[in-house]
Write a structure and sequence with these properties.
Length: 177
């Protein structure tokens, strides 16, 4: 009887400790938290779901995010771009729907790639993106510019003219009609 009570006490203590550890782990903020940018571009409702990494004193474009290598356009899962209407992105038609959004950053020009496969993790174990090129729907070019101020945490903004990606000292506008 006494052994049973001691065993129950240990089980209860272990359960309490496990509960405390799990609840404490859930309170920690993610290093690259999930974010959503929404708005209207022309007549379309646009939503961009992404994970927002921070610069943390690092040089971002050209180093952390290499030039001329496909990037998941955020952190964690591939960035998701959704439009409820057909739109023209940089003069090219993109049908209404949900897409993974990838970027190919360059020093003087970027490409944004809309891919029909969604829900995948953004990179594979070797560091390359999980993008399946056979599912690319549209690729558009955009010109990066130096931003007016430092943006510590990467952010997308949907505007009446399209969307803008901002991070570090760079902003890349993409026109939508």
């Amino acid at each position: 009887m006494k052994k049973k009570m001691i065993l129950k006490g240990f089980v209860m203590m272990f359960a309490c400790m496990l509960t405390a550890v799990v609840s404490q782990a859930q309170d920690k903020p993610k290093p690259s938290p999930a974010k959503t940018a929404t708005g209207k571009a022309g007549a379309a409702n646009i939503t961009i779901n992404y994970s927002a990494p921070s610069a943390k004193g690092r040089k971002v474009f050209g180093e952390l995010v290499p030039f001329d290598k496909v990037w998941r356009a955020g952190a964690n899962e591939a960035t998701i771009f959704e439009t409820d209407k057909d739109i023209m992105v940089e003069g090219q038609k993109l049908p209404a729907g949900k897409y993974s959004l990838y970027a190919l950053p360059g020093a003087s020009e970027w490409s944004f790639i809309f891919n029909s496969e969604t829900g995948q993790w953004g990179i594979k174990r070797g560091g390359e993106t999980s993008k399946d090129a056979s599912k690319d729907v549209l690729t558009v070019k955009a010109k990066p510019a130096k931003s007016a101020s430092m943006t510590e945490t990467m952010a997308y903004e949907v505007t009446p003219a399209g969307f803008v990606l901002r991070w570090e000292n760079t902003e890349v506008p993409v026109a939508i009609k």
